[in-house]
Amino acid sequence: MEVSVEVLPGLERQITVVIPSEKVAAQVEHELRKLASRVQIDGFRRGKTPFTLIKQRYADSVRIDVAKDLLHETFPLALEKNNLSPVSSPEVAHFDVPEGKDFRYTMTFEVYPEVKFKAFDASTELEFTTVALTGIPGLSRESDEHVYVNALFAFNSARPIRTRNAGAAVA
């Protein structure tokens, strides 16, 4: 399996995966053999249809099913191999399953942005901003500031609480 990643503008990435034709052909052959034992075609008993006839009728649809299975199997491996974690759902940009050639698909998706942190040690100075709460009615002392700030974030307890059983409001 060959994987290549292309960086597109912004946070978009495009990943192209190529799976060798031998692997695709082996899985198609395996799925056709399983199908041959179950399918019944007029003029033949169940499971006794010649394999060439099965291949002639069902090879294209089985090849597409195998390609979808391979896509679901190899895409997470390709992401893991390249340390990519998509944010958006991947979109299939290209899906090609020619007979006798390598299976190739291309997916486009967005990734999380890279966040780099600066080194932090004991000698690094931190800046703090102090906010003064002035001009607030009812605020008499500086020690009351924490009460006011907590009240801003507190749940509004003036609303009545409804109980499930009675449906009546309880204060």
| Sheet with the most strands: spatial strand order | 1-2-4-3
Characterize the biggest β-sheet: 4 strands, antiparallel
Which of globular, elongated, flat, extended, rod-shaped describes the shape?
elongated
Q: What is the typical, i.e. mean, pLDDT?
A: 81
Q: How would you spell out the order of helices and strands?
A: EEHHEEHEE
Give the termini distance in whole angstroms. Answer: 67 Å
> What is the helix tally?
3
Number of beta-strand segments:
6
Instruction: Give start-end ranges of low-pLDDT stretches.
Output: none
Structural class: alpha+beta
**Approximately how much beta-strand content do the residues carry?**
15-25%
Question: For the CA atoms, what is the radius of gyration?
Answer: 32 Å
Report the helical percentage. 25-40%
